[in-house]
Amino acid sequence: MAMTGVLRPGHAIVRVLDLDESVHFYTNVMGMKETGRDKSGRVYFKCHDERDHNSFIIRQADRAGIDCFAFKVLNKATLDLLDTKLREHGIQTERVPAGELLETGERVRFEIPSGHIIELYAEKTDVGNGLGYLNPAPWLPDTKGINPVRMDHCLLYGPEIDAVHKLFNEVLGFSVVERALLEDGVTDLGLWLTCSPKAHDIALVRHNEPGKLHHVSFLLETWEQVLRAADILSMNKASIDIGPTRHGITRGTTIYFFDPSGNRMEVFCGGYQWYPDMKPTVWTWDEIGTGIFYHNRKLNDAFLSVLT
Ligand SMILES: [Fe+2]
User: Are strands 175-181 and 188-194 parallel, antiparallel or unpaired?
Assistant: First the structure.
């Protein structure tokens, strides 16, 4: 796939209840690098192999959850074109000026029918991964905590996911990689969508309440690192939701856990590469448990009910 249009997930802005406790968690347990703080009190982080200034931003609020999930697009012309296409599709967009988020260019912000705020942007300062662009070493020796490679995708819960599918497909150029069906065998319970050769860049599950976060996910390189993440979480008395285990859907090996505010996070490894000539994989209602957690073969109650 030629990488044009929307390139990849760029940043998630997540609400936390206690900023200091959360900075400790994301710095020392997750092992992300703090890259800045702004006047409004938001704290910015990046993962070790990310080159742009930030990919995960937290702000203190009265309730946990997600403010927005953003995608980086190829360039400014693409941003303008997608803004026009969104408006033609009946989506109201807002331009957020460059610099409103640290080291980030102008953003196009809009609400999708599931009640989530999505942003597109073309520019974010390249601060590098610390290894340089010339004859780099393969990794940095000063690592902390779980130390994920990158912020990878999110799973959002909300209504109207058919309309969201149409918007992501027809306007933003995403494809459906996997579908999970409700009992009627027709209606989508969940959709795993990609703008790249990854098995998913964003996933959606049908839910009555709009704007809910199921998880933000971060990539690890090996299954052993997923096991090590579980050890680190337990050493730090973090709340583990499930795992280490494997998803049937997308085939990733995974662990779900909660940040100190109750926001679910995932670190995962693996999955498969997707190309546009591939048909979507379908999971039927009777096998949905296997699709979500391949070893337990059943959903835990938390998967469908614990959201922020
Ligand atoms: Fe995930």
Answer: antiparallel
pTM above 0.85, yes or no: yes
For the chain, helix (H) and strand (E) counts, in that order, are 6, 17
Q: Is 217 helix (H, G, I), strand (E, B) or coil?
A: strand
Which of the four pLDDT bands, split at 50, 70 and 90, describes residue 142? Answer: confident
Please indicate whether residue 215 is annotated as part of the active site.
yes
Q: Is 11 labeled as catalytic in the residue annotation?
A: no
Q: Identify the pLDDT of residue 304.
A: 79
Catalytic residue among 11, 48, 153, 165: 153
227 neighbors 180 (Cβ within 8 angstroms): no
How far, in Å, CA of 201 to CA of 203, rounded?
7
Q: Which of 50, 103, 119, 266 is catalytic?
A: 266
What would the pLDDT profile of 59-94 be if each residue is shown by its tens digit? 999 999 999 999 999 999 999 999 999 999 999 999
Kindly state the greatest CA–CA separation across the chain.
Answer: 56
Q: Does 53 qualify as catalytic in the annotation?
A: no
- Ligand 1 center from residue 282 Cα (angstroms): 17
Residue 5 backbone phi and psi in degrees, to 5: 60, -125
